[in-house]
Design a protein that fits this description.
Layout (H helix, E strand, L loop, with lengths): L2 E2 L3 H7 L1 H10 L1 E6 L4 E4 L1 H7 L3 H4 L14 H12 L4 E8 L5 E12 L5 E10 L1 H29 L3 H23 L6 H29 L8 E4 H18 L3 E5 L6 E4 L1 H19 L6 E8 L3 E8 L29 H10 L4 E5 L6 E7 L6
Parallel strand pairs: 1-5, 8-10
Antiparallel strand pairs: 2-3, 2-6, 4-5, 5-6, 7-9, 10-11, 11-13, 12-13
Helix pairs in contact: 6-10, 7-8, 8-9, 9-10, 10-11
Length: 376
């Protein structure tokens, strides 16, 4: 977009009515090609808290908040330098130090020879909207953390027992080895078998600790990288084993017989599976002959993880709502209803999809994720 006028006075002459209307409804500034301000309207002065005299002859660095990096403004200058219109949201700092946001459109102005001569910036104050968005993001983060902690609490019910058993076994074998060391005849083969058993128990404990560590941390800022999906799922099953055994829930697995490399944020994907597994546990707890199934289909371009159970499934009239924030079928105090909504956002952030298959038997939740591909 270009406007074939050469000076500010010509702009006012040709567009006098339009400029007058613009001055009444928008924050307006005009600069030369070097970014030096040659015109500002009253709304610009009021919002920035600088007088017209203070602004004229200065550049917009006078209101730079330092929030945007150099590449942000480099892109802006490259765009308008080509004669193209630039649009963006900018956080500025008023004279008093107050921060404010403006939705900005910068239009290159050309003279009658088609040569760039100046830029007109038209802005609107969006501070209230940006503050509201930030407040919502903070609240969502708080609720994500709350949901995560609830999931960890459920998983942690049997952790003491899970870690206590292998620790007890390791101590018993160490005491046996200590006794053998004081005996005249040292049974080497028995000692080797005991050491191997202790190594197995240590590995088991490592799985439990690793899975809990991944579940407890925030992975939203992690870089996309390759990880062993099979190992992650086995770790989750390890910390869920005692809880399921205590409630006589059989756990079936399929497709975990080989390493599967996936590119993504391991922590987020792990939290999705933990949430689905916990939901399945809640659905079958107390039923006759309960079971939970976790299966993986490894294809050339994607991986599908399915979590099914022997429960009754989600009622048909509720299926369109299960991914809505705050919706839950659980009793008060048993969940926030955020789980599936957050899980879907995590999966979609990886370029995949999370959906419910209620028309199949058994009904199940499926996670489809692309392999070896960074999220868009």
């Amino acid at each position: 977009m270009s406007i074939e006028v050469s000076t500010v006075s010509e702009l006012k002459k040709h567009w006098q009515d339009q400029i007058h209307a613009l001055d009444q409804s928008a924050i307006v500034a005009i600069t030369n090609l070097k970014g030096v301000i040659t015109y500002v309207n009253k709304m610009f002065c009021d919002l920035s808290e600088y007088s017209e005299d203070e602004l004229l002859g200065s550049t917009h660095s006078i209101i730079n908040s330092g929030y945007h990096d150099s590449s942000f403004f480099k892109n802006m200058w490259q765009t308008i330098g080509r004669g193209d219109v630039w649009r963006g949201e900018v956080r500025n700092r008023a004279k008093s130090g107050k921060l404010y946001w403006v939705d900005t459109t910068i239009v290159p102005i050309k003279n009658d020879k088609g040569k760039l001569e100046q830029y007109i910036a038209i802005r609107s104050d969006i501070t209230d909207r940006k503050n509201a968005e930030a407040a919502l993001a903070d609240e969502r983060a708080r609720l994500v953390e709350s949901e995560k902690m609830a999931s960890i609490g459920i998983l942690s019910a049997g952790i003491a027992h899970e870690l206590g058993n292998p620790l007890g076994a390791i101590r018993g074998r160490l005491e046996m080895l200590e006794t053998m060391c004081h005996q005249e005849s040292f049974e080497k083969e028995l000692a080797i078998r005991s050491v191997h058993k202790m190594i197995e128990n240590v590995d088991r404990m490592s799985k439990i600790i690793r899975a809990l560590k991944n579940s407890a941390r925030d992975g939203s800022q992690d870089a996309m990288q390759d990880f062993n999906l099979t190992q992650m799922l086995e770790d989750i099953l390890e910390i869920s084993a005692q809880k399921c055994a205590k409630n006589n829930i059989a756990v079936r697995t399929e497709g975990l017989d080989h390493p599967i490399v996936l590119r993504g944020r391991e922590t987020e994907i792990g939290q999705v599976i933990v949430n689905l597994f916990n939901n399945a546990f809640d659905a079958v707890k107390g039923l006759e002959n309960p079971w939970i199934s976790l299966s993986v289909i490894d294809e050339s371009d994607q991986v599908t993880i399915a979590v099914a159970d022997s429960g009754e499934g989600v009622k048909e009239e509720l299926r369109h709502r299960i991914f809505d924030p705050f919706f839950t079928t659980k009793e008060v105090g048993e969940g926030t209803g955020l789980g599936l909504s957050i899980c879907r956002s995590f999966v979609e952030g990886h370029g995949g999809r999370l959906f419910y298959e209620g028309d199949t038997q058994p009904s199940c939740f499926k996670v489809e994720l692309p392999k070896n591909k960074d999220a868009d």
